[in-house]
Design goal:
Elements (H helix, E strand, L loop, with lengths): L6 H13 L2 H6 L8 H8 L2 H32 L13 H22 L1
Length: 113
Amino acid sequence: DNELTNDDDADSYLWKQTHANKKSISNNQSEKPLSAWKAKQLKLSAAGVIKRRRDANNRERKRMNGLNEAFERLREHIPGDTKHRDKKLSKMDTLQMANIYIRHLAALLEESS
């Protein structure tokens, strides 16, 4: 019910979540030592946390765009009925159709040799 309405709210929320347990973690250091990565995270300022999250989000967006482009290119090479061209194949259907097509091509090669 406590929805985030804009980037500033989300950034503030992320920073608070990252630093929420800072005191409890520093009190429990005798139980479990902090990794170098975790110690570095706790030293980051709010702006540092926000920048890291935005950078991570941009990397993930770029990765997903690349993956989606690869699926689009694969869909272009899969033969099929024209009635299926009106609706885009799902990723799972695309992989299944590609698998069937590759097996079919392999069988053709086996027959010709």
